[in-house]
Amino acid sequence: MTIQAVLFDFDGTLANTLPLCIYSLQEVFRTFDQRELAVKEAKEWLGNPESKIIEEHLLSNQKFEAIEYYYKVYKNNHSRLVENNREIDHLLSYLKEEAIKLAIVTGKGRRSLQISLECLQMTSIFDCIVTGDDVLQAEPDPEGINLALSMLEVPSSEVIFLGDSNCDIEAGLKANIYTAGVHWLPDGKTTEFEVIPDSAFLTVDEFLDFLKLGALHES
After folding, report:
1. How far apart are CA 5 and CA 150, in angstroms?
2. How distant, in Å, are the alpha carbons of 6, 28, 41, 48, 105 from that of 141?
3. N or C, which end of the chain is more exposed by having fewer CB within 10 Å?
4. Residue 96 · residue 125 · CB < 8 Å
């Protein structure tokens, strides 16, 4: 088997952005609803575009202002709460050198993703990006993954998808592609996978060794 493409979730997989997402939502609900949003509740909502989360859960009628405030907080605090990860940068560089197509499939909105890609200097890396704004059904529905596969024009048997949440794993398996769970960043969505992935990795180096040693070919 030859790997032609690697699909990544974003929050908790490519970048340790979950603390920033949660902080930004908490600031919105504190400012517009005078409510202290619990971390657990915020985590349950994430996986959908932030604008949709605010529209559905904010009690205030100032939905537009709240959404704009979210992006302002998200951008202004990015450098403070999200660090560049050298291991992930190295992984992406290695995959590009190997001429493997790269894609992001994420439930977050395109606007916040673009902010993160710019802050982390990742804007020119990916061949395909699918966000929660591009699909009708959020994960665990495989719509986003299937859309990425059609855009990349690669056989599903030659693709691997990496994610850090149960929804990621379930979506990858439903799309019938090789699916790996990762817990290599400090703040992932889950500590244990309820849905068992094809493989699991605790470090980026483990995944690199997996690729270089041809472990996928043997499975």
Report:
1. 12
2. 19, 28, 21, 12, 12
3. C
4. yes
Q: What mean pLDDT do residues 173-178 have?
A: 97
Pick from 165, 173, 175, 176: nearest CA to 48: 165
CB crowding 91-121: b at 16 or more within 10 Å, else e: bbeebeeeebbbbbbbbbbbbbbebbbebbe
SS3 159: strand
* Amino acid symbol at 136: L
Amino acid type, 65: E
pTM above 0.90, yes or no: yes
Query: What's the confidence (pLDDT) of residue 2?
Result: 82
Q: How far is CA 42 from CA 19, 29, 34, 50, 162, in A?
A: 10, 10, 15, 11, 22
* DSSP β-ladder status, 128-130 and 101-105: parallel
The answer to whether the CB of 58 falls within 8 A of the CB of 32 is yes
101-105 β-sheet, strand order? 128-130, 101-105, 5-8, 159-163, 178-182, 199-201
Stretch 150-176: mean pLDDT: 96
Distance from chain centroid for Cα 208: 19
CA distance 29 to 42: 10
Q: Give the helix/strand (H/E) hosting 182.
A: strand 178-182
